[in-house]
């Protein structure tokens, strides 16, 4: 049914209005137009009496194009109108297939147990799967919202500068610099051609918004020899790509040092907090557009992964006592649905996909798998993506520049890989991070399977077997990813610490479930703290501490320090000293006290105020400090902690006994926040 006019009457379609005939207001096509053979002309104009906009040159992003590409007509779009003859992009004259003619069903990837298993591939090729959303109209209000989002492209140079600074810290392994640079390049030209020499920018952006909607519901047709520039000429003017842009820029504000953003002004777009709010809302709005249209594409999976990382930085990833927010966990569910529907969990058999797209798909799946493992571990929930049901492929150890390069350069880079796919140059800034992240995530799933299991029979044997597998997996990494004290790369140390942390989780499970392995548990925690402090010392001397080290300090160091703190206080009690003493391994009391003291100081220094990890870090620092005070200087009876400190409302006061304080330590959740270890 058509939208009502201001007087409450329903709008007539254009053919009926111009012919002065009574319209029955049916949607998407009125019955009178069907009978008169004018169904193709039957559209409901939202403002039929408005003056036509000024003539301006056609919008196109490739100046060498031989055929001018006009803007999409100002009408309510329908899926029915998106045929192969429709100009579906403002960039190239390529024809698109019907949206229902996908390489899989309307619901996406079909596995061996699906209904398709009863048919051969040739039989499936002739089946036209019906689409339940083919007649879904695009709401004019959505088009207007899209125009508001597109207004933000006026600040595209700012977003591009933030992205450039982000890549100076560390090259992304899911979304690399060539990918983001090409996205900015195409969108800049699209926006410029849409708005320059126009006296009515909003009208032009409304047309551009309609184009984005039309492109978003149109499949991206690829071929094996397709270049990155060709791909982005089709993929960039889509809502999922805009979501990726805003999500990446917003996340970068958390990854960059505050002084390097250059946001000294305090207006809404140039203040750091204002920019974050704008980016998160714009990214979320673009994803809502995609959800409304039922979009399923590779760029959508990219945007979702980046948006989840952004949410974790802004809102946290857990339902903590002081922060009831589960948006990151909810987004993980949407990511899982999308990567499964795209079939990214299985080897890529798409012969029409170019080389770079196949590699990006591998990295996207690794990113989703790693995110799933880390969220599941830190929230103590079952993982959504299980290794036993997937055949996730290791990405090749190549840089993004090599992946998107010409075939000759790409083949030369492939020739410098060993039989396992690692580069023989010992360079960590290529694809090694993606491959190491997948190995670490597999190890994390092994630890998670034991930690979340309710079965206690054979637990000690299972833990020891998992620890052995973890050590073998870590040692299978190439030599340049094996950490030793003489190596200064924080990424190598981070991978090493992560494998140690998985062992820490296994030993924690063994100790808490059956009360065994306390010495190994404490020693593993002490090893983690020692390496962390060593890396902080090296980074401090270099003049700048890498964000990875700070993340490890907060999210791996804090649980390890909490374990040492609890055990230190327990062994300081006279009645417990005999029961907990181990004749085989002396308790390193002095070493633990020294390193916990340094750890507290470093935590206080590097925890960024008012950001996602600040509250839990400072709360943990206060608890550890209070435990050290009790060990070194027992408080006199009757002394109560000062009420001037607002944290004392949550921490136990100095007048409670050590036994009660130990109970508080054991029940304190040292892992309330999420540690996202990969920079996309």
Automatic annotation (TrEMBL):
Principal cellular location given in the protein's record: nucleus
Chain ranges of the Zn(2)-C6 fungal-type domain: 12-44
Coiled coil: 442-476
UniProt keyword list: Coiled coil, DNA-binding, Metal-binding, Nucleus, Transcription, Transcription regulation
Gene Ontology terms, MF aspect: DNA binding; DNA-binding transcription factor activity, RNA polymerase II-specific; zinc ion binding
UniProt record, GO biological process: DNA-templated transcription; positive regulation of metabolic process
Localization per record: Nucleus
UniProt keyword annotation of Metal-binding present: yes
Key word DNA-binding present: yes
Protein name per the record: Zn(2)-C6 fungal-type domain-containing protein
Organism name: Aspergillus niger ATCC 13496
